[in-house]
Design a protein that fits this description.
190 residues, mainly alpha, flat
């Protein structure tokens, strides 16, 4: 089974249903082989995210309906909550995958025209890791803040939060200093 004709047929059905004369017109691009594959991949990915979003809404509504008709039964209420949680988690994963793919493609294209492709790749990798680790740092500090509030002043919880913040701040400093050193070495032009 050849993959390109299969994907072409997969996109052709919604394209014709939407009133487009050709698949290329539906995805908005030229019909050359390279453009066709990229355009079809983008259209299929967008379609899948839209489908996942619709299914997520459906399962959130289903979970709410389960909670409404539970009649006070804790197991049915919990089942409704879990349905909502899983639907929202699935939607977040789908959106996150789109963000990661977009980020990776953008970063890969950033170093494509460089005269030193190895150094450009290292720079892109360091920038990507720095962005990821700084996002994790932000998430950890927010989580520590929420834990501090949920702990309601208990000494053991406060000590855990202090330790969590101390290591998060130390890790953030180490990561950013290391990134600065790598950028300095890369800018030397050796």
């Amino acid at each position: 089974m050849d993959l390109i004709p299969f994907i072409h047929q997969l996109v052709a059905s919604p394209a014709l249903a939407a009133g487009a004369d050709t698949v290329c017109q539906f995805v908005g691009g030229d019909c050359g082989p390279e453009q066709n594959v990229v355009a079809i991949q983008t259209a299929v990915a967008s379609f899948l995210v839209a489908l996942i979003a619709a299914l997520s809404v459906l399962f959130v509504v289903w979970g709410g309906a389960q909670m409404i008709i539970a009649g006070g039964d804790d197991s049915k209420i919990n089942q409704g909550r879990m349905s909502i949680l899983y639907a929202l988690t699935g939607f977040a994963i789908a959106l996150g995958s789109q963000v990661l793919v977009s980020f990776a493609v953008t970063r890969a294209n950033a170093g494509a025209g460089s005269s030193e492709p190895v150094l450009a790749t290292i720079g892109v990798a360091v920038d990507a890791m720095l962005g990821l680790f700084n996002t994790v740092f932000l998430g950890m500090t927010l989580y520590a803040g929420f834990r501090l509030v949920w702990g309601r002043g208990k000494a053991e919880e406060t000590d855990k939060v202090k330790s969590m913040l101390m290591y998060a701040i130390f890790g953030g400093i180490v990561i950013n200093v290391a990134s600065s050193l790598v950028q300095s070495v890369l800018n030397l032009g050796i």
